[in-house]
Amino acid sequence: MTPQELVVCALDAQKHAYAPYSSFIVGAALLTRSGKVYKGCNIENKSFSPTVCAERVAIFKAISEGETEFEAIAVVGSYKDGTYKHFCAPCGVCRQVLSEFCAPDFKIVLGDDSGDCEVHTLAELLPQAFAL
Ligand code: THU
Question: What architecture is domain 3-125?
Answer without folding.
Answer: 3-Layer(aba) Sandwich (3.40)
